[in-house]
UniProtKB/TrEMBL annotation:
The chain crosses the membrane at residues 21-48. This is MacB-like periplasmic core domain-containing protein. Keywords: Membrane, Transmembrane, Transmembrane helix. Residues 27-167 form the MacB-like periplasmic core domain. It comes from Vreelandella olivaria. The lineage of its organism: Bacteria, Pseudomonadati, Pseudomonadota, Gammaproteobacteria, Oceanospirillales.
Length: 182
């Protein structure tokens, strides 16, 4: 009996007597509003769940979850990477060098953050290889001058696969009065 009580109370107010139709109308309107509100809430939560999944897989697949940095450079990064991989919650590790730079092609200039990677290690920590439209990370060979550009950067520069680009990186000259960009 107690499990049917809310249903019976709701039914009483929806089926009002003939002389009191206003209460029936108010009750029906309230129930429809409540149903609509719950449906919208479920829809919004579903959209946010999907957005959260996309955020985690696409954006965080390109950005490292943690970085270990050194101002003077890491000489024995392989040893450090092996030590980190021994930890239970570490999935992958890969070295990279990060530098601000400017790409130039035929009078068009575009600033960018340039990452120097080791292609053999990068597949362990990044999804960049899965989203490359042409070529593969294995095409990057030490000693050769190859670069992977994002689609927006390539579009802004007006270049395609095989075109030559010039990369300019800042270099500071240290003099007695201070450091000056070169």
């Amino acid at each position: 009996m107690l499990d049917r009580l809310p249903f019976l109370v709701g039914l009483r107010y929806v089926r009002a007597k003939r002389r009191n139709h206003f209460i029936s109308f108010i009750s029906l309107t309230s129930m429809l509003g409540l149903m609509l509100g719950v449906a919208v809430l479920i829809l919004v939560l579903s959209v946010m769940n999907g957005f959260d999944h996309e955020l985690r897989t696409r954006i965080l697949g390109m950005v490292p979850h943690a970085k270990i940095e050194s101002r003077v450079g890491m000489v024995e990064w392989e040893t450090l990477a092996e030590e980190l991989m021994q930890r239970e919650r570490v999935i992958g590790a890969a070295p990279y060098v990060e530098q601000q730079g400017m790409f130039s092609v035929g009078g068009r200039n575009q600033g960018a953050m340039v990452n120097g990677i080791n292609p053999d290690w990068e597949d362990r920590v990044s999804i960049i290889g899965d989203h490359m439209r042409q070529g593969e990370l294995s095409d990057l060979v030490p000693g050769e001058w190859h670069v992977v550009l994002g689609s927006m950067l390539a579009r802004n520069l007006g270049v395609g696969v095989g075109d030559r680009v010039t990369l300019l990186v800042p270099e500071a000259s240290i003099t007695p009065p201070g450091s000056f960009p070169a």
